[in-house]
Design brief:
Low-confidence stretches: none
CATH superfamily of the largest domain: GAF domain
Mean pLDDT: 87
Structural class: alpha+beta
Largest sheet: 5 strands, antiparallel
Order of helices and strands: HHHEEHHHHEEEEHHHEHHHEEEH
Strand content: 15-25%
CATH class of the largest domain: Alpha Beta
Shape: elongated
């Protein structure tokens, strides 16, 4: 990537900003007039022609102005864009999503879904987040109660704040001693161990004290395994798809359909999001840089979030390459840091 001189860099920044705002090619006269340059439009036209030869701009039609190429966007992201202050990005009401007193903080799935909604609202792009990976999530508590003679309630609480529960029909009521013993044994067996390690564990030998209610024992242990299996599935959350439909780039069905089809297979997105976990910085993946062919008309801005010092999952926004990268990167960076803070607090206090 060639370093641009001051004038070319200014023109590239102007073209990116105007094209992002209007979705229309930008001409040399418009740049001179809008930014009050003290050079002629012919000079700017020559500069733009040179930048096209260098690969930073392209001309969609012979008589049209210029638009940024993927390389032009890359140069803008790495050398020209400036972060958006938090005060201009989010209102106090929006940042309160991550306050410890917010009820959604206590349930990770709801928090991540709300986080995706917030990102979509702020950026006007689609947003995608992944739930914490199972190798950083352990079981904190297993709680048992018998709300009715023929029902047993199992609640499994993970270190991430995720909760799974099962209401099981049982053939008989347990005594208080049996219920307490079963709860203690499950807690001793599963608590404080990573979810991934607990998958497909061999069943415990039924202790003598529980032989009279062996069927209840087996039902409960199967329910615990069901909860662990559910916690092991890394969920993908998606919000703001309507914003993609609003973009002029996707008004053509042949461009929109492959993207929508991919989003209906969320595990495919994991191939792209896994790249984010390898870096501590916000990642910007532009157009042809995408490893997924369906997404090469799109850009991604993504970051990992952490629980303690370990990568747990990712948050991201995606839209056309004609993206407002300043807003997207600032929003994703803030949300990733806020999620890391609140989920670490949950993990420590659980």
């Amino acid at each position: 990537m060639h370093r641009l001189d001051e004038r070319k860099a200014f023109i590239l920044q102007a073209v990116v900003q105007d094209y992002v705002a209007t979705a229309e090619p930008v001409g040399s006269e418009a740049v001179v007039e809008r930014y009050r340059l003290r050079v002629s439009s012919a000079t700017v036209r020559n500069e733009m022609a040179e930048m096209a030869e260098m690969g930073y701009l392209r001309q969609p039609h012979v008589s049209a102005g210029r638009i940024p190429s993927d390389l032009g966007y890359r140069y803008f992201v790495e050398h020209l864009m400036k972060p958006v202050p938090l005060s201009k990005l989010l209102s106090p009401q929006q940042t309160s999503l991550f306050a410890p007193t917010n009820p959604e903080v206590g349930e990770v799935e709801r928090l991540l879904q709300a986080t995706c909604r917030l990102l979509a609202q702020v950026t006007h792009y689609a947003s995608v987040a992944t739930a914490p990976e199972t190798d950083v999530v352990s079981i904190r508590h297993i709680l048992l109660s018998q709300p009715a003679a023929d029902k047993l309630l199992l609640v499994v609480v993970a270190s991430s704040g995720q909760v799974e529960h099962r209401l099981m029909p049982v053939p008989e009521r347990l005594s208080e001693q049996q219920l307490a013993l079963l709860g203690r044994m499950l807690q001793d067996r599963y608590a404080m161990r990573p979810v991934r390690e607990l998958l497909n564990m061999e069943p415990l030998v039924v202790p003598p004290e529980m032989l009279p209610v062996e069927s209840v024992w087996k039902l409960t242990e199967q329910a615990v395994q069901d909860c662990i299996e559910a916690l092991s599935q890394q969920q993908v959350f998606l919000e703001g798809l309507q914003h993609i439909l609003e973009q002029p780039e996707f008004r053509q069905v042949e461009r929109l359909y492959p993207v929508i089809s991919l989003l209906e297979r969320p595990q495919m997105l994991m191939r792209l999001l896994k790249r984010v976990a390898a870096s501590n910085e916000v990642q910007v993946i532009i157009g042809e840089e995408n490893p997924l062919p369906e997404m090469r008309c799109c850009s991604w801005v993504a970051s990992c979030y952490r629980i303690g010092d370990r990568v747990a999952g990712t948050v991201s926004v995606w839209g056309p390459t004609r993206m407002h990268y300043e807003v997207a990167t600032s929003a994703v960076r803030y949300v990733a840091n806020a999620l890391s803070h609140v989920l670490t607090q949950i993990s420590v206090s659980s």
